[in-house]
Design goal:
The protein has one domain. The protein starts with 11 loop residues before the first strand and ends in a 22-residue tail after the last helix. It is built from 10 helices and 2 strands; from the N terminus they run βαβααααααααα. A two-stranded antiparallel sheet has the order 1-2. By secondary structure, the chain is an all-alpha fold. About 4% of the residues have low confidence. The longest helix is centred in the C-terminal third of the chain and has 18 residues.
Length: 226
C-alpha cells in the first residue's frame, strides 16, 4: 500500500476506466494504480522510471495529469488534447531534458519552465503553468538535497502566498515569479526543518503558516486542477 508523503493529506480519487478509455494506450504509465487512489508517490515512481529511460515523457505527463485532474469530468479530455499536441513526445523530452540531472539547478528549472510556456518550443494544448508546474515538480524534485526545488504553482497556492513570495498575479506566471516562489518556499522549509513541497501542500490545504512539523492530516485530498 502506498504511504502518504509528509504533508500529504490523502490520495486523489480517479475513475480509472474513464481515464483508460480517454488516453492513448502508449501514454498510460506501466504499473500505475488501478484502485482509483493515486498518491504523490505513485506519480514520483513514474518520474523515476522516466529518468532512467523506463517510462516515456508521455507516460509521465499522463501520470501527472491523472493526479492533477483527479475526478474532474473534463480531465481526461484535456489530457488527451495535451497528448495530441506531442504525439511522439519530442516536445516534452526537449522541455524536461535537463531535469534528469541528480540535482537540477536554477538555470535548468528556468529553462524547463520557459520551454513549456513558449508555443514555439514545448508548450502543449491545455497545459498552462498551473499544470506544467505539476509536471516540473514530479520530474525535477529531489528530496533531501536542499536548495530550490520545483514546486506546484496553481491558483489555489497563488492566492494564499504572501506578497514577499514574489508572485504578483493569479495566473499566467512568468518564470521569475515561479523562481521567486521557489526561493521563498525553501527559506520557509529550512526554518522549519521540512521539505519545500510541505510548504506547497500546507498552502494548498489552507494550513499555512505551519507552526512546525509537517502539518499532516488524515482527510482526502481534492483534485489539483487550477
Amino acid at each position: 500500500m502506498t504511504q502518504p508523503m509528509p504533508g500529504e493529506s490523502g490520495p486523489i480519487t480517479i475513475h480509472v476506466d474513464r481515464w483508460r478509455a480517454a488516453l492513448p494506450p502508449d501514454a498510460w504509465p506501466d504499473g500505475f494504480p488501478v484502485t482509483g487512489q493515486v498518491w504523490r508517490r505513485d506519480v514520483f515512481a513514474v518520474a523515476e522510471a522516466w529518468r532512467v529511460g523506463e517510462a516515456s515523457p508521455r507516460q509521465l505527463l499522463s501520470a501527472v495529469l491523472v493526479w492533477g485532474y483527479g475526478p474532474i469530468g473534463y480531465g481526461p479530455w484535456r489530457t488527451a488534447r495535451s497528448l495530441e499536441g506531442d504525439p511522439d513526445g519530442k516536445r516534452l523530452a526537449y522541455a524536461l531534458e535537463d531535469l534528469r540531472a541528480p540535482a537540477p539547478d536554477e538555470d535548468a528549472l528556468r529553462i524547463a519552465y520557459q520551454r513549456l510556456r513558449d508555443p514555439k518550443e514545448s508548450r502543449l494544448p491545455r497545459l498552462g503553468p498551473a499544470f506544467f508546474t505539476k509536471l516540473l515538480y514530479f520530474a525535477g524534485y529531489r528530496r533531501g538535497v536542499g536548495g530550490r526545488q520545483p514546486l506546484i504553482l496553481d491558483s489555489v497556492v497563488a492566492r494564499r502566498l504572501p506578497a514577499d513570495a514574489g508572485v504578483r498575479r493569479q495566473s499566467g506566471w512568468v518564470s521569475e515569479e515561479w523562481l521567486a516562489y521557489l526561493g521563498w518556499a525553501v527559506e520557509q522549509a529550512d526554518r522549519r526543518g521540512i521539505e519545500p513541497d510541505e510548504v506547497e501542500m500546507a498552502l494548498f490545504h489552507d494550513r499555512w503558516p505551519l507552526p512546525g512539523g509537517d502539518g499532516q492530516t488524515a482527510r482526502t485530498s481534492p483534485a489539483r486542477a487550477g
